[in-house]
Specification:
Length: 152
């Protein structure tokens, strides 16, 4: 039995979400980078840094490619390297982490291939697809990134 709460989103709710995202960006708490094909200027994905904490120098990163036809081409890796280089070199961050559903094997492989290390498991933290699922916490530290991808 699916006990997930149903939420109906209005255009006003969407407008407030967009306004909050813009405010978060303007306050330096989040950054979203579009992944654009050079040949066509087509927006095919996003890499986002969110919950940027300048005191503890860490943030969350999210990555997404929309069309399956653009996946597996290394585009996310290139965008991730650029975003993390910016986060470490320009923002002075020390740690970038991500949360991945345990059932999302492709995202887990991508995180591990990129150099993220598994730090822990948030047990039964997300209710999705009719069941509670574990979330795996991954992170990469500045020196691990530099060791793997070099300095500026």
């Amino acid at each position: 039995m699916n006990h997930a709460q149903k939420r109906f989103i209005s255009s006003e709710t969407e407008k407030r979400w967009i306004e909050a995202a813009i405010a978060s960006h303007e306050q330096g708490k989040s950054l979203r980078f579009g992944i654009v094909l050079k040949e066509t200027d087509e927006l095919i994905g996003i890499v986002s840094l969110t919950d940027i904490d300048y005191v503890n120098r860490n943030a969350y990163i999210g990555r997404w490619i929309g069309s399956p036809s653009h996946r597996g081409q290394g585009l996310i890796d290139e965008a991730m390297r650029l975003a993390l280089r910016y986060a470490f070199d320009e923002l002075g961050l020390e740690r970038i982490c991500s949360h991945v559903l345990e059932s999302n094997r492709a995202s887990r492989r991508a995180a591990e291939k990129f150099g993220d290390r598994q730090e822990g498991i948030l047990r039964r933290a997300i209710f999705k697809e009719g069941r509670f699922q574990d979330v795996i916490v991954y992170a990469i530290l500045r020196d691990e990134f530099y060791e793997r991808y070099g300095h500026k």
